[in-house]
Amino acid sequence: MTIAIDRRRLLKGIAGLPLATILADPQLARAAASATETITLKTDGGRSVIGALAKPETATAPVIVLVHEWWGLNDQIKAVAVDFANQGYLALALDLMGGTVAKTPDEAGALMKAVDPAAAIDTVASWIGWARKAPSGDGKVGIIGWCFGGGWALNGSTVAPVDATVIYYGKCDLPAEQLAKLKGPVLGHFGEQDPRMNHEMVGKFEAAMKQDGKEETVYWYDAPHAFANPTGANYHKAETQLAWSRTLEFLAKNLKG
Question: Taking the domains of the chain in order of start, what are their residue ranges?
């Protein structure tokens, strides 16, 4: 009981700070991350995986599944989960890196290359299934991911459909037959200066979504890849704030409306 009360107090204390301020400061991010609870899940494939859970004050709430960047399940992604809890969601940040967190781009690249696609899909889909049946969830489920995580968020929502999907500069040019399995709408944020997640790639996604009659909204920002990460050199404050406001509006409309 004491631990639960302390977590609630910490959530309230952090709630007054801008999310970007928390994410940019390792100590604040660590403090926010400590308000999450590590939980374990046995996947549909029989594997044991972990996630970081942040709970709102309400008894029941929509559930948001978060998929991290190539760095792994670090304090920053846990802090975002806490921010979602402050917004009234039950937030679960999953782990696709087996508990390892990268400290350098080289380490992150190696972790990303080592990810088994079948295992990743099993993990994401299993957590979505958990979210659907979570005792403190209300049945509504959304998923959001950044970069590496954006691609896996979209992949996961084609295997275990959700009510809303948000992609931040992630790989999205999936085959039309795969995108046809989506249930809810998709929101995408992309940078004009991103050489990889560019108009050519996103255009294929939009064409496939249109072919399937699926709802999608794509926004472009005058920014490079990873513009929404306050810890990186590509961070663009104004664009990040705009994208975040659009994300919160989109999720509220589809999960709370």
Answer: 2-256
Cross-strand partners of 49 = 41
Phi, psi at residue 43, to the nearest 5°? Answer: -70, 170
Give the C-alpha distances (Å, rounded to integers) separating 118 from 69, 165, 230, 237: 18, 20, 31, 36
Q: Which of 90, 180, 76, 101 is nearest to 127 (CA)?
A: 90
Cα–Cα distance measured from residue 157 to residue 92, given in angstroms and rounded to the nearest whole number = 15
Instruction: Please give, one letter per residue, the 3-state secondary structure of 100-120.
Output: CCCCCHHHHHHHHHHCCHHHH
User: Would you tell me the crossing angle of helices 117-133 and 148-159 to the nearest 10 degrees?
Assistant: 60
pLDDT digits (tens, 9 = 90+) for 67-111: 999 999 999 999 999 999 999 999 999 999 999 999 999 999 999
Q: Which fold has domain 2-256?
A: Rossmann fold (3.40.50)
Is the pTM of the predicted complex or chain greater than 0.90? yes
